């Protein structure tokens, strides 16, 4: 049997081939599986261990009971598209036509996939910040595009604007911006976002802004890229009901932007999943219409968890960057004598009972060395779980080096 094809490029692009050529799962799946088999505290994959607001859960149950269990419309239910448009206007000042400029997807992941596959020709460049969410690398390779990365360096994780300028050229088709950023927790500053808009305009590129953590900026203001002058006509913005409302298994995402671009994304999306998550769509619409105070409450809850985790890691001798947003904090294992975080993260579940993600797994092979000793820990977990994880890390000193 042939063992080549786009899947192989995608797997290679995401670093999923073992040295002997076997396909491995994503680092998130692999680490969650290790947590299950060892009984370790899972501070790896970014999913909350609690459910979202009661109103959403009730609406999902009611939608199922009402019989909303068949295919929803290809672009998403009219009411959810309206709720997405209202939410963008309320929080970001961006006006959207819910019928032509909003598309509901199976999670932000499908929005990203359909966007890359629908808009990028083989050989074109996709510019991303690094480290990056693993799907960007895999999708770039699936599209036979070239991934060009701009590093966010430990510990401030601020982009160098000259490096960004050099990365964007006439070959660039997409600039994927992720703010707030996974895994670093950086909230990209206005000047960087303005530079992205300027470079995209100069080189005729499309901007894709992955804002799944938009409501989780603890320090600094999250700026929606599409709200900047000159951005809207060339920007696709991606959001996630799963991340916004702590229901990651529901897989309701969306992409918004100019009607012609949305049409291109829809053309691919309809042959990936066609539609999805029927009864969860009305539930996410309820969430998007919650009062502002509820979004703030959730953000403040997460901020307290961030503080708990960062303080605990530091008190165990681990140098830790304070994330400005999101679900994750990054610690440098070199500060306690481990230079290879990938090896450390494979040992931690079995030997100490904690799961973390090696940041190098979220990097291109050429740059993995720069992130070799960094570990990402998720703090979107109940306080009891975080505290148990930290208790277990007290035994770090017992690990052989
Ligand atoms: N983008 C980023 C930056 C993420 O961290 C994730 C993971 N939740 C996604 C996209 C995918 O989101 P979803 O679960 O809605 O597919
Ligand atoms: N976004 C989540 C993370 O970064 C995981 C999503 C996934 O497993 N694909 O941990």
Automatic annotation (TrEMBL):
SUPFAM superfamilies recorded for this chain?
A: PLP-dependent transferases
Family listed: Belongs to the class-I pyridoxal-phosphate-dependent aminotransferase family.
- Please provide, in alphabetical order, the Gene Ontology terms of the cellular component aspect for this entry: cytoplasm
What cofactor(s) does the depicted protein rely on?
pyridoxal 5'-phosphate
Q: What is this protein called?
A: N-succinyldiaminopimelate aminotransferase
Stored PANTHER family: FI04487P (PTHR43807)
Q: Is Transferase one of the keywords?
A: yes
Q: Which InterPro entries match?
A: Aminotransferase_I/II_large (IPR004839), Kynurenine-oxoglutarate_AT (IPR051326), PyrdxlP-dep_Trfase (IPR015424), PyrdxlP-dep_Trfase_major (IPR015421), PyrdxlP-dep_Trfase_small (IPR015422)
- UniProt keyword annotations, A-Z: Aminotransferase, Pyridoxal phosphate, Transferase
GO terms for molecular function, please? kynurenine-oxoglutarate transaminase activity; pyridoxal phosphate binding; succinyldiaminopimelate transaminase activity
Domain Aminotransferase class I/classII large as annotated: residue spans: 41-393
Instruction: Give the residue spans that cross the bilayer.
Output: none
Which domain of life does the UniProt lineage start with? Answer: Bacteria
Q: What is its EC number?
A: 2.6.1.17
